[in-house]
Amino acid sequence: MNETTFVPPHKIIGVAVIANDQGQILIDRRRQEGAMGGLWEFPGGKIETNETVEECIQREIKEELGIVVEVGEHIITIDHTYSHIRVTLKVHHCRLIQGVPQPIECDEVRWVSVDELESFAFPEANIQIIAALRKWGNGGGRVVE
């Protein structure tokens, strides 16, 4: 007997944790018709060939939300396998430089506090980002001015 094992495709994703001056984080809701439709996420997208993580995040945020961000410190890298895809999320803290977030390639955008994140439904891999943000926000990385 010859059994074949399904190996899901692997995507490397640049993810932005965009904070505003009030300490809120920008999240967006995935379109209903897409994969994991209706779930909330931290914005970002697939890293293209010959593109750095920072370039990917800047490009994706401009395309998806119509804003310009400065990509800062790396927060966490997550490797997660769903039934249909394996993702590596390279998550960076970002600062809004220009524009007002618009739901260009998503259903909705919201500014929320780290404490509010638990009340939104996120894809499973994003739970580790939220845990890292809790640590980050409690003196685990952010400089308090």
Automatic annotation (TrEMBL):
InterPro entries: Mutator_MutT (IPR003561), MutT-like (IPR047127), MutY_C (IPR029119), Nudix_hydrolase (IPR020476), NUDIX_hydrolase-like_dom_sf (IPR015797), NUDIX_hydrolase_CS (IPR020084), NUDIX_hydrolase_dom (IPR000086). Its cofactor is Mg(2+). It catalyses: 8-oxo-dGTP + H2O = 8-oxo-dGMP + diphosphate + H(+). Mg(2+) binds at residues 44, 64. GO terms for biological process: DNA repair; DNA replication. It holds the Pfam family NUDIX_4. GO terms for molecular function: 8-oxo-7,8-dihydrodeoxyguanosine triphosphate pyrophosphatase activity; 8-oxo-7,8-dihydroguanosine triphosphate pyrophosphatase activity; 8-oxo-dGDP phosphatase activity; 8-oxo-GDP phosphatase activity; metal ion binding. 8-oxo-dGTP binds at residues 30, 41-44, 126. Its EC number is 3.6.1.55. Keywords: DNA damage, DNA repair, DNA replication, Hydrolase, Magnesium, Metal-binding, Mutator protein. Transmembrane segments: none annotated. Residues 8-135 form the Nudix hydrolase domain. It is an enzyme of class 3 (hydrolase). Belongs to the Nudix hydrolase family. This is 8-oxo-dGTP diphosphatase.
